[in-house]
């Protein structure tokens, strides 16, 4: 177990070309590796984007054994850095029948959070909360998950994952904290709009403070999405903060800071509510 853990978050504009996106990710992973980072958090929807066209994202979904994820696995092997971010996967990957949507001329996909280490997929998570808000309808092309997000080990640190809109639901983060998370990672494509930047800052800080966890939150940056990736300490204070341009932020997380926060503010011990669980266990 390491008392210090260096983490990075890379925000960039996901292009229409999956091979170009892999090139960008490789460059960021090499930089993170050179700076000693063990974990690189990436945005949501990494394979291909065309502004806010959800149909384009769905049309470019690839299976987990396809060329894009194979490329991510290769990058993790080459750099020694754990990669976290989301990809869109054809619906049949999860064994579901999308014949009804095919008849309507639409393609349904799954939004899968990937954890890739040493050339292997070590964890996946299917997005629970779909972004059907602010006039958006993610559920038109994406199907939701039915399981709580997982935790993975990084050098003795327990890391839980969430995807974008999940951050608006405190139960998601709390479910990770009560299962032992030290760090909560958020992979996002946070859409611009009135007060949306404030919401992003407020809720990422709240999820850190109310769970006394570090939070590493990464959003795509583009004409549609805000960027503003950030790393927060267990009392909700900003450790590193990105603006509205592509780039990487890094921070060294300190286990003594985590211990101190939880001794000073023992909310996980003092709480009197039951552990969060899903209201509906089936799709």
Automatic annotation (TrEMBL):
One GO molecular-function entry: hydrolase activity
Domain of life: Bacteria
InterPro entries: C-N_Hydrolase (IPR003010), C-N_Hydrolase_sf (IPR036526), UPF0012_CS (IPR001110)
Alphabetized SUPFAM superfamilies for the sequence: Carbon-nitrogen hydrolase
Keywords: Hydrolase
Domain CN hydrolase: 5-255
Record family assignment: Belongs to the carbon-nitrogen hydrolase superfamily. NIT1/NIT2 family.
The name this protein goes by in its record: Hydrolase
Organism encoding this protein: Bifidobacterium catulorum
């Amino acid at each position: 177990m390491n008392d210090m853990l260096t983490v990075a978050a890379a925000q960039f504009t996901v292009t229409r070309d999956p091979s170009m996106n892999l090139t960008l990710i490789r460059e960021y992973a090499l930089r993170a590796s050179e700076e000693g980072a063990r974990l690189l958090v990436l945005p949501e929807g990494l394979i291909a984007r065309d502004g806010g066209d959800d149909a384009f994202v769905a049309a470019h979904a690839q299976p987990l054994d396809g060329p894009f994820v194979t490329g991510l696995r290769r990058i993790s092997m080459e750099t020694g850095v754990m990669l976290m971010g989301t990809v869109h996967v054809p619906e049949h990957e999860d064994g579901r029948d999308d014949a009804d949507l095919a008849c309507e001329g639409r393609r349904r996909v799954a939004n899968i959070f990937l954890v890739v280490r040493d050339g292997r997929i070590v964890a996946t998570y299917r997005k629970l909360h779909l972004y059907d808000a602010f006039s958006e309808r993610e559920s038109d092309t994406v199907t939701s998950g039915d399981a709580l997000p997982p935790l993975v080990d990084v050098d003795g640190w327990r890391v839980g994952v969430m995807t974008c809109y999940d951050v608006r639901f405190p139960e998601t983060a709390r479910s990770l904290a009560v299962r032992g998370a030290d760090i909560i990672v958020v992979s996002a494509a946070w859409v611009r709009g009135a007060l949306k930047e404030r919401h992003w800052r407020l809720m990422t800080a709240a999820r850190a403070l109310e769970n006394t966890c570090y939070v590493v939150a990464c959003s795509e940056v583009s004409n549609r999405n805000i960027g503003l990736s950030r790393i927060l300490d267990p009392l909700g204070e900003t450790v590193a903060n990105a603006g509205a341009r592509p780039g990487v932020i890094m921070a060294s997380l300190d286990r003594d800071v985590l211990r101190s926060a939880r001794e000073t503010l023992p909310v996980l011990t003092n709480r009197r509510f039951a552990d969060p669980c899903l209201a509906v266990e089936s799709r």
